[in-house]
Write a structure and sequence with these properties.
With 122 residues, the chain is mainly alpha-helical. The protein has one domain. It is built from six helices and two strands. The protein has a two-stranded antiparallel sheet with strand order 1-2. The longest helix has 36 residues.
Length: 122
């Protein structure tokens, strides 16, 4: 019985940048385009795209040597944006859930309560 076939690299000469997928790399232009799209998409209030960019280009983020500086700047920028966005989300979540009315004040807490917002719409 023959061993299972490995994923073929579409263009081995052009595949320079490793992704989290391992041996299936991307060309310079494809990697830059994808990383730039994820990076700019994160600014459209979609910070999970920054996380996806960091995950997909993990080898570029983890190992500094031998990668395109422009590609690395998009991935590092995504890592910074992701860290800031998720830190702000964690702070807001803790302040709202743990502090509640005592921290925010009754009027502000009731204005921010999701069930009150939905009741106001319906």
């Amino acid at each position: 019985m023959a061993p299972p076939a490995r994923a073929a690299v579409p263009d081995a000469a052009a595949a320079r940048h490793l992704t989290i997928d391992g041996d299936v790399g991307l060309s310079d232009d494809a990697a830059r385009s994808l990383a730039r799209g994820f990076f700019l998409g994160g600014f459209l209030l979609l910070p999970w795209l920054w996380f996806v960019n960091c995950y997909f280009f993990w080898p570029v983020l983890r190992y500094n040597a031998g990668h395109d500086p422009l590609l690395r700047s998009y991935v590092v920028g995504s890592a910074i944006g992701c860290s800031v966005a998720f830190s702000l989300l964690a702070c807001w979540s803790l302040a709202y859930s743990v502090g509640g009315e005592a921290l925010l004040g009754t009027e502000t807490w009731q204005r921010l309560a999701v069930y009150n917002i939905v009741d106001g719409i319906l």
